């Protein structure tokens, strides 16, 4: 939250023959702090949409409510009515628009993968970023019913079924993993260039290319630090995390790497503020290490002296894929990507109690309504947004996350692969739920990018 200082000078200064006590005593004027919740430069008291950045204060219908806060201004492409949003089964999710992979990629055979997002703090505009087989595409979703395909960055080398992107300090950082990506490196793109795209879609060039790695499966950034963690790379450290200084985004610099915990398929890194007093303020890395069916917890505060806190497994492991902390950092929600196909489960997601990082315990398991595989999942507030492959996006309520049963309850869904909910690798790859406007971006392997909203 930003603070804007308003200085109120004594009105007596207008009169030359009058002096206030403050003038005589030489004290400072009264200072009042005005709140600006959304950080758009307009104090809350004067902001017609105080929760969403809208520096231009646009109010089309002059009703005193800023356009940014009026979801009624947007008519969904497919509203969810009686369990269907157009051709897609749904519960409480409207489909605002869909952008196909062939349009985004400029290639009829391309497929989609990871998604992330960026909000331009200076304009309040929202942008979606999606990894594709041959490129990374950038889309202006400020009007979710009429998104603008701004352009794409071509792959640095070869095609890749896995392309991952994260954002830090107005820059996108992109890695790829495939048989033809052995020298791909990490691409860096200045997102502020999206403000002025004259003739979209444009073929962008990168602003930097970090060649200290080849192919990498994933990238993780702790946004309170200026460090990128590249994981699952084809380097000599066995696929463990590689630490890269991105304080100067266009000049990324290798710091160190860590091998002992083995290959990480995905990870999350946080500045820890959870219930374990031993690690308050430390930078904690949680690696989902599918190749060894373990989860590794590391103290990476000192990149040259990484400390292993604990490493654990769980019953009926198949491939520890990806996980995310609850916002209080007590619970960690983990998806095992292969347990559905290995053991015949319906969607199974695990909840671990991380109140003691040295001794995590399995708190509960969630079983979904379909046989579909769980992929990436992210927490926002009291909800878990699950990319559930053929079963689409599922939203689970976390109010009872500490319970040993019924810890998570499904409240919303949109099924982007309506022909089947079986355990196969189609449909929703990932989700970005963090836009303040309520826009949710879904990356779908076959259909591309969905922009949806909760009703």
Automatic annotation (TrEMBL):
One of its GO terms (biological process) is cell adhesion. The keyword ATP-binding does not apply. Gene3D superfamilies: TSP type-3 repeat. One of its GO terms (cellular component) is extracellular region. Keywords: Signal. Residues 1-20 form the signal peptide. The keyword Signal applies. One of its GO terms (molecular function) is calcium ion binding. It comes from the Bacteria. Pfam families: LVIVD (PF08309), TSP_3 (PF02412). InterPro entries: Choice_anch_B (IPR027589), LVIVD (IPR013211), Thrombospondin_3-like_rpt (IPR003367), TSP_type-3_rpt (IPR028974). NCBIfam families: choice_anch_B. This is Regulator.
């Amino acid at each position: 939250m930003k603070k804007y200082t308003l200085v109120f000078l004594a009105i007596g200064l207008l009169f030359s023959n009058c002096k206030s006590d403050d003038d005589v005593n030489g004290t400072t004027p009264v200072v009042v702090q005005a709140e600006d919740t959304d950080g758009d430069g307009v104090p809350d008291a004067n902001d017609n949409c105080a929760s969403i950045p809208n520096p231009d204060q646009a109010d089309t219908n002059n009703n005193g409510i800023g356009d940014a806060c009026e979801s009624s201004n947007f008519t969904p492409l497919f509203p969810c009515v009686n369990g269907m949003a157009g051709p897609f089964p749904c519960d409480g999710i409207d489909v605002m628009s869909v952008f196909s992979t062939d349009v985004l990629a400029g290639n009829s055979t391309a497929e989609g993968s990871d998604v992330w997002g960026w909000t331009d703090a200076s304009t309040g505009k929202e942008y979606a970023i999606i990894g594709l087989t041959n490129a990374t595409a950038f889309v202006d979703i400020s009007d979710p019913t009429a998104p603008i395909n701004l352009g794409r960055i071509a792959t640095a080398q070869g095609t890749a079924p896995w392309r991952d992107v994260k954002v830090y300090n107005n820059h996108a950082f992109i890695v790829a993993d495939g048989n033809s990506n052995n020298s791909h490196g990490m691409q860096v793109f200045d997102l502020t260039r999206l403000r002025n795209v004259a003739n979209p879609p444009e073929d962008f060039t990168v602003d930097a290319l970090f060649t200290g790695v080849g192919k990498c499966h994933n990238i993780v950034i702790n946004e309170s630090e200026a460090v990128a963690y590249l994981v699952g790379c084809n380097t000599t450290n066995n696929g463990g995390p590689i630490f890269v200084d991105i304080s100067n985004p266009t000049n990324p610099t290798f710091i160190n790497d860590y091998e002992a915990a083995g290959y990480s398929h995905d990870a999350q890194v946080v500045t820890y503020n959870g219930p374990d007093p031993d690690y308050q303020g430390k930078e904690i890395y949680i690696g989902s290490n599918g190749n060894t069916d373990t989860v590794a917890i590391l103290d990476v505060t000192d990149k040259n002296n990484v400390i292993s806190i604990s490493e654990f497994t769980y019953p009926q492991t198949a491939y520890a894929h990806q996980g995310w902390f609850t916002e209080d950092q007590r619970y960690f929600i983990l998806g095992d990507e292969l347990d559905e196909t290995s053991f015949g489960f319906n969607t199974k997601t695990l909840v671990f109690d991380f109140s003691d990082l040295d001794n995590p315990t399995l708190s509960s398991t969630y079983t979904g309504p379909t046989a579909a595989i769980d992929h990436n999942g992210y927490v926002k507030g009291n909800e878990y947004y699950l990319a559930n492959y053929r079963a689409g996006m599922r939203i689970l309520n976390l109010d009872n996350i500490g319970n040993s049963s019924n810890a998570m309850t499904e409240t919303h869904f949109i099924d982007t692969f309506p022909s089947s909910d079986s355990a196969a690798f189609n449909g929703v790859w990932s989700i970005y739920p963090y836009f303040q406007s309520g826009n949710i971006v879904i990356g779908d392997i076959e259909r591309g990018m969905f922009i949806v909203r909760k009703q």
